[in-house]
Amino acid sequence: MKLITTKKFLASFLVASVFSGCVFAQQSKENEMITNKQKVVELLNSIENGNTKPVGYINPNKYIQHNLAVKDGISGFGELLSQLPKNSAKVDVKRVFEDGDFVFTHTKYNFFGPKIGFDIFRFEEGKIVEHWDNLQEVVEVTASGRGQIDGESNITDLDKTQENKKLVKNFVQDILLGKNPNKITEYISTEKYLQHNPYVKDGLDGLKEAIDYLISQNDMFIYKKVHKILGECNFVLTVSEGSWHGKAHSFYDLFRVENGKIVEHWDTIEEIPSKEKWLNNNGKF
């Protein structure tokens, strides 16, 4: 589908900002009829299909941007999209979840090149007011033979969101932050652990092999702080800050829980640019 032109993008964002009094009053009534999940999916798909309507789901007066390569506000979002090569953008939302005021997605993009990304949107009164993301380039040949975004997507265990978030929170504290790494089998299934990190094989043995290699190369990634734990039912996403290769990185990890154990894992790892390269002052987290 045809990507809309730079002028059309910027014009649509200008309208959203200047005429919020009448335009958004009418749109707010329409917005009440669709879920926040639907709003986010439509907004992401608009990157590819050029539909300007989903921009109305963003608060024109408050849009806090945490992608450090994008300027703050709704105009920064429009400016980024205007820079995409014509007809290049592709968007395939594989998973979408909701946790309170937050909606988070797992998406395969062609966005200045093939990428896998997690996006988090925060809502206030039905409008998107804040955005975080983490992007990683697509790796075609992986250690496990699994893709970075394929695998289970069905939401189950509707009554276990808090239980599963607690499990992952404890896993993060004990394993990722290193408080008690010997407890790993209390969190990860010894029978089934499907791995979508492109450099790690399936199972606990595959994870151990990858960790041993990184340690032998003096290049082990380090988790320093967990900023968010979001979940819906059997899926839980963690947003963490740390380092790898001696540089600051952000780690987004998505876990699928089954019968009280982690059985599947996806992630993206992104280097955090030095502060002089930031296009906004909101920080990565």
TrEMBL record:
Q: Where is the signal peptide?
A: 1-25
- The yes or no answer to whether the keyword Signal is present is yes
Q: Which PROSITE patterns match?
A: PROKAR_LIPOPROTEIN
Q: Which GO terms describe its biological process?
A: polyketide metabolic process
Arranged from A to Z, the UniProt key words for this protein are: Signal
Q: Does the keyword DNA damage apply?
A: no
PANTHER family in alphabetical order: ESTER CYCLASE, POLYKETIDE CYCLASE SNOAL-LIKE DOMAIN
Name by which UniProt lists this protein: SnoaL-like domain-containing protein
